[in-house]
Amino acid sequence: MLEHLIAGFAIMFTAVTIVSAAAGLLAGILVGALPGLTATMAVAVLAPFTFFIDVSIGIPFLLGVYKGAIYGGSIPAITINTPGTAASAATAIDGNALARRGRVRLALETSLFTSVLADLVSTIVLILVAAPLASIAIRFGPPEFVLLYLFALTMIAGVSGVDFVKGLFSAVAGLLLAIIGLDPMSGYQRFTFGITELMGGISLIPLLIGMFALSEVMIQAEAGRRPRELVDVLGAGGLTWRKARALIPVALRSTSIGTALGALPGLGAEIACWIAYGVTKRRSKRPQRFGKGSLAGIAAAEAGNNAVVPAALIPMMVFGIPGDTITAVLLGAFMAHDLMPGPLLFDRSPELIYSFFAVLLLTNVLLIGFGFFAIRHLRHITRIPAGLLYPAVTVLCFAGAFSVNNSSFDLVIMLAGGILGYGMRKVGLPIPPLVIALLLAPGLENTLRQSLMLSAGSFDIFYTRPIALALLTMLVVSVSMLVWRQWNLPKSSHSLSEGTTQ
Amino acid sequence: MPRLIDRKRYWQGLSEVPDFDGKLLTQRRVDMILAFIAAILGGGVLLLLPVQISGESVRAIGSIRSPAFFPVLGALLMCLVAFLLVIRVIRAAPARADVVEEKTDLPGVKRAGLMGAMILVYGGLVFVLGMVLASALFIVGASLAFGYRNPWGIGLLAVLTPVLVYLMFEKLLNVLLPTGWVF
Predict the structure, then answer these.
(1) In whole angstroms, what is the distance from residue B60 CA to residue B55 CA?
(2) Residue numbers of the domain that contains A98
(3) Which domain holds residue B120?
(4) pTM, full prediction
(5) Positions in chain A short of pLDDT 70
(6) Contact B56 A214 (CB under 8 A)
(7) In whole angstroms, what is the distance from residue A299 CA to residue A280 CA?
(8) Is residue A498 part of a domain?
(9) Which chain A residue lies closest to B33 (C-alpha atoms)?
């Protein structure tokens, strides 16, 4: 492992790669700091820029964007009480309360310190865990992968929205979209409606740009102009070593929560920040301080969401299964570079995988410098009016979507994705299950048909092999829990009844 | 990550979707609509199978090797989702009248519709005027639609953004942008 990591560092420690990762980090912080521009949107819109450059430049750029956007979201959360990304929602509670007491600098530096610490620990976990997991995953056959795909889809459908049935709707819609194109085994056309451009299937990146970026532009247009009150004075007294040391136990506990949740499909930084915040508040000796500018509250939320970033790469790198929408877009970018993450990539090009891990460590160091720069100067970009921001983003969406295949049909897919994404968000259908199902469907179809051919059509193959049986048990338990939760939803989900709370 | 539906309204049995009068639809109504869409999708895939799958007769659908195997599975799952939604609609009590009366921000929905229409028109104009000119026009229109009124800001953005995008894609990355009849 160590020799691969050293080889990875050797590959990545070139001036171009470092500049690329730094540019990605800065772009990510900028986007994250702009309320309404999400981390997924940032990666989706910027991904096409990387398709035309070498993988050792493009992927570090995107990893930098991912990491920067999650951290950047804390800046407007603290200064204007508006989370830049959903992952920073919990940070706003104590961060903005502290800022209103004139301690903006302390709040921002606490956020930076815990973000860097959580990110570092989670990256180390990724490095230590990924290779052993990949050595197990390489023994997986088609039946194990079928069950793994189903487990991932069930989890994503179950936990990414308010209710399981809508999540299931979204996931199955993704599976149906994926059948458009050529049958992977026979090469026959399926549901192409005579359109040549559909023979290669639905173009993923234009669809993602539409669903995440264009739908966001429409949502923001719907929201209209909202006055934002910027807490403008940094205030005296930043984070001292004494205060930082006192926060380390909270940060490490929240990091472990973020890492565990990030490694599971479906649970992203948006959920991890709230769970880490809730656990910290419950275990605190002074819970009454939470909500009034508690440093532990900021530390918990930021460590929780930043720890998810490297951890979410575990299922993507090891099994080729994206844990959330950002890793789904990243997986699309990997595929555009002819890289298919999974156990085979660990076996064939370990130095390449470790070079990406080296980038994560590198961006962690860079985040310290960029973070201090952002604290001093970038908090003012939250003042950019929506009327300037979103039209420019839309133009970038069009340019990016077209450039993927130089195809005007991709613009049609993007526009359709925008309308579909807006509609789904309005009726409460979660988008992540659709996107991830669309990505996993080809693998699921192939492995399912291979498994049934191996067993001559018998379903025994899914429970007569030890690993498959373990995965099947996990699947049954998770489905049972989700069905139980769904069945026990109060009837008030459909009709008002007094006393019902969130 | 997309914004989830407003949880407070959700637990009150309300969606974020307004009807034509601006009243919010109940979750029950939304479930009914979704059940209908799911049935159309699932049923539609099954009905279109013989026409939309080339080179294979309908008789081979049951075979694992058939290209129809996975589409049938997906369509059946979608029908199951429709069934679950119908069950939920039947189980749920109709919402109380006072809840149904709650109104939403209809101008907001209209603003979103206007923005959607502008984006669609922009998509068409790109192939008439070319990326640079169409983008400049779109930026002017969209900025005004967002309520931004500073002419200098709009003018600068309308010139700089398309030019920078053009230089970045066409000159730096050597990637073509859509061209129109004009440019």
Answers:
(1) 11
(2) 2-225+236-485
(3) 106-172
(4) 0.82
(5) 35-36, 82, 160-162, 225-236, 266-267, 379, 382, 489-502
(6) no
(7) 9
(8) no
(9) A427
